[in-house]
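Please fill in the sequence for the structure shown.

STRUCTURE ENCODING:
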């Protein structure tokens, strides 16, 4: 008989292109653990793709359904990449185990084209293989009827510059494509008269929906973008890579700082007793899979070859396994991340 699930958690998935395959591995290991139950999932960009797959799989056939959906999704991404990816790795670096494409001729051409032309010029028919992949792997009509796992997907409103959070009832191919819409690759996605770009710009991922709509007070963040780098970036590619990381971490760090401030108010007794119940004590946990990606640069986010993606998946599983061994007992009891030290 299966062991009863004892810990209810929320999952927050960062975006990061092909690096989202690490999140695939992390999620696969968490779903394998029958001591865990997932209440809600938030995701942006590649994190939204993973989040939608997990939510749909859970709705369809529980944890095994979620794992199967993730496997099928990422295999489809790899298969499509053989035909649609504008970036190809040089054969020799692949055989030597290199992870980045920064010196590949195709990547240099890709950078040149996307800096000189907009997707309205070089991609006038708005070809996006992700759309077909999502429609093949996820039945969004069925997902919208899900009552057990809440889904939050962030996209950036181009007109207002604000984050827009779509929930389970809104789930669709357009919503996920909007969350993963890099503006230098694809036309903005129009939904109900508004246009959207990648959710990572304003919420990577968003946490605040958990405060109001999730039962669990434990948020497990799966990081993909490195937060810190000790070495000063000096080359053009290193600088662009670091700018990308900082940009896609900024919104998350702001939310974590706000949570840290509320924790301090509660811990230091600055809130009157009659008002304390109005503030929710959120427990934050971080699976720092970004540490395994520290040696990768932005170019590797465009790699879709199966060997690379499955390598990242296995790394994600190992990271999640180590995290569970160290932090499982803290779930439901206290944060495993010291936010006040992080922002000291």
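FILLED IN BY: designer on duty
SEQUENCE:
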């Amino acid at each position: 008989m299966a062991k009863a699930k004892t810990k209810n958690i929320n999952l927050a998935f960062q975006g990061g292109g092909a690096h989202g395959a690490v999140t695939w591995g992390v999620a696969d290991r968490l779903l394998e653990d029958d001591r865990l139950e997932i209440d809600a999932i938030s995701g942006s960009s590649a994190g939204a793709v993973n989040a939608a797959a997990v939510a749909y799989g859970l709705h369809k056939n529980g944890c095994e359904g979620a794992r199967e959906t993730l496997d099928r999704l990422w295999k489809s991404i790899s298969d499509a990449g053989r035909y649609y990816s504008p970036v190809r790795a040089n054969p020799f670096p692949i055989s030597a185990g290199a992870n980045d494409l920064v010196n590949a001729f195709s990547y240099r051409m890709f950078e040149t084209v996307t800096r000189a032309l907009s997707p309205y010029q070089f991609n006038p028919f708005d070809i996006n293989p992700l759309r077909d992949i999502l429609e093949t792997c996820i039945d969004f009509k069925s997902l919208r009827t899900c009552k057990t796992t809440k889904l939050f997907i962030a996209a950036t409103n181009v007109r207002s510059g604000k984050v827009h959070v779509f929930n389970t009832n809104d789930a669709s191919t357009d919503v996920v494509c909007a969350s993963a819409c890099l503006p230098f690759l694809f036309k903005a996605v129009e939904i109900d008269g508004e246009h959207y770009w990648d959710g990572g710009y304003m919420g990577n991922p968003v946490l605040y929906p958990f405060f109001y709509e999730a039962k669990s007070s434990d948020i497990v963040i799966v990081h993909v973008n490195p937060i810190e780098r000790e070495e000063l970036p000096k080359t053009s590619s290193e600088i662009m890579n670091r700018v990308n990381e900082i940009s896609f971490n900024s919104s998350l760090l702001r939310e974590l700082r706000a949570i840290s401030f509320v924790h301090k108010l509660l811990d230091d007794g600055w809130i009157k007793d009659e008002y304390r119940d109005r503030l929710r004590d959120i427990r934050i946990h971080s699976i720092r899979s970004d540490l395994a990606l520290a040696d990768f640069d932005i170019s590797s986010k465009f790699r879709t070859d199966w060997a690379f993606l499955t390598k990242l998946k296995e790394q994600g599983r190992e990271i999640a396994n180590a995290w569970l061994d160290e932090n499982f007992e803290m779930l439901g009891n206290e944060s495993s991340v010291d936010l006040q030290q992080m922002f000291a």
